């Protein structure tokens, strides 16, 4: 069932998103300011994502801070550089053709797809390369 690293990566992404959203709403419901709740929820989700991708999606056996630094750099570049560029590109292409909220939604969906592809490729070949041979074997 969990044959490919791509499927496992998507599964972890879904769980990661649920953790992020769930904690964000739970913490804000409990009275925490949104900025603080978001920092906690994204921090927990990012930590989960690193360990789950390393051990389950890509089956890396390496240990060490260098792998975590690479993961953080790849992930944050996707979030803070690629996503804004794709969103701005969508806004430039679609400006005036559709209402602004729809353009933003299209841009965010496109940006998410781009950053997912970016993350998968670089996690597999740069962050967790030692797990590449075993990553697509049957579980």
Automatic annotation (TrEMBL):
Q: What is its main location?
A: membrane
Per the database record, which ranges form the GtrA/DPMS transmembrane domain? 8-128
Does Transmembrane count among this protein's keywords?
yes
Topology in the lipid bilayer is annotated as: Multi-pass membrane protein
**Where is the secretion signal located?**
none
Q: Which UniProt keywords apply?
A: Membrane, Transmembrane, Transmembrane helix
Q: Which residues form a coiled coil?
A: none
An annotated GO cellular component: plasma membrane
**Which domain of life does this protein belong to?**
Bacteria
Protein's name in the database: GtrA family protein
Source species of the chain: Leucobacter edaphi
Instruction: Please spell out the taxonomic lineage of the organism that makes this protein.
Output: Bacteria, Bacillati, Actinomycetota, Actinomycetes, Micrococcales
């Amino acid at each position: 069932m969990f044959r490919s690293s791509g499927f496992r990566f998507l599964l972890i992404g879904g769980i990661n998103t649920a953790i992020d959203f769930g904690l964000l709403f739970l913490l804000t419901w409990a009275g925490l300011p949104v900025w603080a709740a978001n920092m906690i929820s994204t921090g927990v989700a990012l930590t989960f994502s690193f360990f789950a991708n390393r051990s389950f999606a890509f089956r890396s056996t390496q240990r060490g801070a260098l792998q975590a630094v690479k993961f953080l750099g790849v992930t944050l570049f996707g979030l803070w550089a690629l996503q804004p560029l794709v969103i701005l590109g969508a806004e430039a292409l679609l400006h005036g053709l559709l209402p602004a909220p729809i353009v933003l939604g299209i841009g965010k969906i496109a940006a998410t797809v781009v950053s997912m592809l970016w993350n998968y490729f670089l996690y597999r070949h740069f962050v967790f390369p030692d797990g590449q041979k075993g990553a697509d074997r049957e579980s």
